[in-house]
Amino acid sequence: MCQGRQSCRRLSQSDLDAAKRRPNSCVITIDGRAYDVANFLCRHPGGALALENCRGQDASVQFSMYHPELVRKFLPTYCIGQIEPCELDDNVNEADNQPFSCGDVKHQQQQSPIVRDYFALRDKFHRMGLFQTKPTWELGLVLRILCLLAASVACVLCPPESAWPIRVVLAACILGIYLQQLAFVGHDLGHTAVTHNRLTDHRLAAFLGNALLGISIGWWKLNHNVHHLVTNSVTDDPDIQHMPLLAITDEFFSSPISTFYDGKRKPFFRLLMRVQHLVFYPVMCVARFTCTFAPTST
């Protein structure tokens, strides 16, 4: 039910198009209702760019995929009207799965085989209980991972001195396993998939990620949420933006803009790409530090 500034107002397609064109607006549609979320962009837990990528589109599927039902109680605040029913061609978007201009999740499920299969698989996993987590198991996992950190430190500090080079190499290997395993836990916390409480998982992620892993959970969420919305999009997905040092596809040469980092490709990028096979391993040696300092560049 719309209970926003224009309660239960009926919007025609022309009204909706006009609302989308208004300056400083960010209109999205969810389940047949239009919402202007411009004032919510900076407060969106998933980051402003996650909403920006849905600007002017039907975000019914995205909303249903990434939000629990309890979040729906916040929607009426931003509702600007109910969209009038419109005729949709049964063949529209079936091939390319692009967002609809009107409709709801159920209709999109009927139209898109990919969306339909996704929701069917998700419902099956829910029935199987695969999304249920055990906090005690997660706690045990974190303790085991911290033991790896302790073992790595012990390898460096403990005698004998004569075996110091071997111990340093062993410590580095153990530390690498520690970092990778802790990153998996941080990933689940960032997705609110451990306690299923957003604030609790965020605080735990801030401790494990920021303090013990050296990665800002706030920066990670901004990147990763957009990544899930526009996965492997050359211009929009920040998780594959490694320019100018690395290009994972030649499509980067024909794509001039990075929407996430708000930067244009420079002419010398192509020159650097010619030697990326030489700089790959040196770059990987310091890649961890880029995660630490990346928040200052975004």
From TrEMBL:
It is a multi-pass membrane protein. GO terms for biological process: lipid metabolic process. Gene3D superfamilies: Cytochrome b5-like heme/steroid binding domain (3.10.120.10). GO terms for cellular component: membrane. This is Cytochrome b5 heme-binding domain-containing protein. Its main location: membrane. Coiled coil: none annotated. GO terms for molecular function: heme binding; metal ion binding; oxidoreductase activity, acting on paired donors, with oxidation of a pair of donors resulting in the reduction of molecular oxygen to two molecules of water. Keywords: Heme, Iron, Lipid metabolism, Membrane, Metal-binding, Oxidoreductase, Transmembrane, Transmembrane helix. Pfam families: Cyt-b5, FA_desaturase. Belongs to the fatty acid desaturase type 1 family. Residues 8-84 form the Cytochrome b5 heme-binding domain. It comes from the Eukaryota. The keyword Lipid metabolism applies. Pathway: Lipid metabolism. InterPro entries: Cyt_B5-like_heme/steroid-bd (IPR001199), Cyt_B5-like_heme/steroid_sf (IPR036400), Cyt_B5_heme-BS (IPR018506), FA_desaturase_dom (IPR005804), Fatty_acid_desaturase (IPR012171). It is found in: Membrane.
